[in-house]
Amino acid sequence: MAFPIPVRAYIARWQKKGLIDDETAEALLSDLKSQGSGFGLGNTLAVLGAVLLGVAIVTLIAANWEAMPRLLRVALIFVVIWAGYLGGAWRQSLGDKAFSQALYIIAAIAFGAGIALIGQMYHLSGDAASAALVWTAGVMVAAALLRSGALAAASMAIAIFYLFSFLNDGFSPDGRQYLWIAPLLAVIGAGLAWYTRSRAAAHLAALFLIAYFLVAYFDIDRPVVLWLAAFVGLALFLADGLRPDLSGRIGSFGPTLAAYGLAAGLLALSVIQFEDIMRETGGRVTFGIVILGLSIGALALSGRGNPSVRWIAYVAFSLEVLYLAFVTIGTLIGTSGFFLTAGILVLLLAAFVARMERRLHEKNPKAGASA
Amino acid sequence: MKDKAIWLFAMATLVALFQSSILYASIERRASVLRDGRDVVLLTRPVDPRDLMRGDYVTLGYAISSIKRSDITGTPDDKTGNADIYVTVKAGSDGNWQFSRASFQPIEDVAAEEVMLKGRTRYSVPTQSDALVSVDYGIERYYVPEGKGGAIDDAQRQQNVQAVVAVSASGEAQIKALKENGKPLYEEPLY
């Protein structure tokens, strides 16, 4: 479901116009309900509000450093954790989807703040990375036990924070243990996303993996990391494109996974291309052709049924064309000539995208029916 | 429906208990070192502060924070880049404790007047015998109220801040107090 909110409005309109009978409308709506997590604007706002409130509580405790005795600060953290989880369970038992998740999130933030504040108050040394790892693990356990999609998403967001804490500490303070910890976290995150039926968690798990490949590449600085990322990404994409029956088994996650795979593959290839240029080995045109070919191939294979793939392919194709034009003819012509060429190219690309969109949309109903 | 609610509350309690005990464990672990450990007094040396995730703190360096490679016995186990290291200190005539010996393996024959600290090398261990090995003991940071760090830094620069450190039997160290010229600056309660 790419746009769950308007679809309901459409169904209501069709029902009103008499295009579909009440029974069909009911069936369609209940199908929608079973598919999506129902994480609408209201729920999103509730969770965002919870994040803000959680941060407010934490900064309030942290700022009143000297006004409060240490034990009181610790007690407050504990109170927020307990109140958050128990209060969340109470709201959830009443069927309240938004505020139960919001309270869980507040508790999870309080737990992370507790790790940082206790480390600070009791002068425990230790790096930010291992603190973030304990936080991630604690929230993952909470997500699994409470079967909470919001907590699953939060745990993956914290996992991304864990990866980026390396950038601050300088690389590999823990002897590069993250190289095996991070894939483990991604697998657990994907499992939690499936178990809690949280699309947000699945998105974050995919982003986490892409961030992992980038951090690993900049850390160990070997092209094999990029090739691996390109291979894994494209394999995911092809698995969905060539065997939709297989990817259909994981529900609506398949196409999304394919889109992330394509994005990761193209991203890895463009970093390879960039490295190639830095070393001036002259492969830029070869990589250019590969990236352009992949974008076109991706459009042909999955562009019809998968809007995310379509847009990733458009972006990759356009950037690559502009880039190739810049490095091959950009140096031969003057500034105004460059803008002229760039202008014409962008217009041509726009025409190309518009044409593709029309073509793909014409066939869309058929593909939608068979998918 | 009622069973489901009870189940949910049980899970929520479990989660809250789990996360609070992680936090409590780290507090209690430190308290037990302060309570049961032996005290040593180490003279600090200035280093440079600040950290993203936490507030203001002073970074404390000690004479035993860098040890000559040739003074360390045993073979380092540093497959992950850092090696465990065991260092003993002895009380000096001026009340500050001094380096006595170091090994990459736990020291079995610690004398009565010695105290053993367990540390970790900051980088992989160099092979040249005259190289200096940087060691962390977990007592390199002391958090202070915002804006107060500068005063300790200045005093450290004049070489007269001492740290009273409690050391457990296994060598784990925690800062118990900071002193300037023997006058207490900060003293740590157990909890």
From TrEMBL, chain A:
Q: Which InterPro entries match?
A: DUF2157 (IPR018677)
Is Transmembrane found in the keyword set?
A: yes
Keywords for the protein's UniProt record, in alphabetical order: Membrane, Transmembrane, Transmembrane helix
This protein's source sits in the domain of life called Bacteria
* Residue intervals passing through the bilayer: 45-65, 71-90, 102-122, 151-171, 177-195, 200-218, 224-242, 254-273, 285-302, 338-356
Keyword Transmembrane helix annotated: yes
Q: Which parts of the sequence belong to the DUF2157 domain?
A: 13-151
What protein is this chain from?
DUF2157 domain-containing protein
From TrEMBL, chain B:
Top-level taxon in the UniProt lineage: Bacteria
For this protein, the record's InterPro entries field holds: GDYXXLXY (IPR025833)
Sorted alphabetically, which Pfam families does this protein's record hold?
Answer: GDYXXLXY
Q: What is this protein called?
A: GDYXXLXY domain-containing protein
User: Which organism is this entry from?
Assistant: Paramesorhizobium deserti
